[in-house]
Design brief:
The chain is α/β, with parallel strands linked by helices. It is 47% helix and 18% strand. The protein is built from eleven helices and ten strands.
């Protein structure tokens, strides 16, 4: 049985995919556990940055073939693909910056998982790719969507259509990862970068992350509504509106920002 382990030290949360005997491949229970972990980290007001990593020699081999290969088409599309998509979107939209510490290979859904992070640091021995078409399927957890928006269509074409896999250094050259470090050092490097992020204003980090996502065409609607809601929540008008509702009277708005 695999699980998602969460630990918090100071301002930094670490989310570890822990199914090393299966190269941290996901099944339905793992997806549910990741969603719950995201909720826990989001709710912890002390956390300013999160690190995402894998246990053992792999970051993640993606989806466990045994978990979905016997599903009927409708179940596969909804219970597996759409659910996994929602979970990875949940990770991508955490209020705090997320650093993916790639301790091992990130393939298929594993790369889609890494792409949901804001920063990716990779150990030099890893390889990344999207091999789904070799199984007669397509990337389903935003491999053709988020990856294209973040890294560009051509590099995604090469991985999806041509089956190309890239070394850590090649991936860095293409912008798929942001830094490459020696084997065995990625968690230390991620913690160092996380401390750098955590030293900055947490409100500014959250709002800047939303603004960047909006500019990049990622979930524009929710980003705009979140920014607007944060702004309105700080106004005197909202306080007056709530007080008037509670007092069963007509609100007297003053346009106070």
């Amino acid at each position: 049985m695999g699980e998602i382990k969460v630990s918090v030290e100071g301002f930094i949360a670490t989310i570890m995919v822990s199914r090393p005997e299966k190269l941290n491949a996901f099944d339905i229970d793992m997806l549910k556990a990741l969603a719950a972990a995201c909720d826990d980290v989001e709710a912890n007001g002390a956390v300013r940055v999160a690190i995402l990593t894998g246990e053992g020699k792999a970051f993640s081999a993606g989806g466990d073939v045994k978990a979905w290969s016997d599903m009927a088409a409708n179940e596969f599309g909804h219970a597996w693909v759409r659910f996994g998509h929602r979970v990875f979107d949940r990770l991508a939209t955490l209020r705090m910056p997320v650093i993916a510490a790639l301790n091992g290979h990130a393939l298929g859904g594993g790369l889609e998982l890494a792409a949901a992070a804001d920063i990716r640091i990779a150990e030099s021995q890893i390889r990344i790719g999207l091999p789904e078409t070799s199984l007669g399927m397509v990337p389903g957890w935003s491999g053709t969507q988020r990856l294209t928006k973040r890294f560009g269509a051509q590099i995604v074409r090469r991985m999806v259509l041509g089956g190309e896999m890239f070394s850590a250094e090649e991936a860095r050259g293409y912008g798929l990862v942001d830094a490459v470090v020696e084997t065995g050092t990625v968690l230390a490097a991620a913690r160092e970068y996380a401390a750098r992020i955590a030293a900055r204003g947490p409100a500014a980090l959250e709002i800047a992350k939303l603004m960047i996502a909006s500019a990049n065409g990622e979930d524009n609607g929710s980003a705009v509504e979140a920014l607007g809601s944060i702004l309105v929540a700080k106004t005197g008008d909202l306080k007056e509106g709530v007080a008037a509702f509670a007092g069963k009277r007509t609100a007297e708005f003053k346009g106070e920002w």
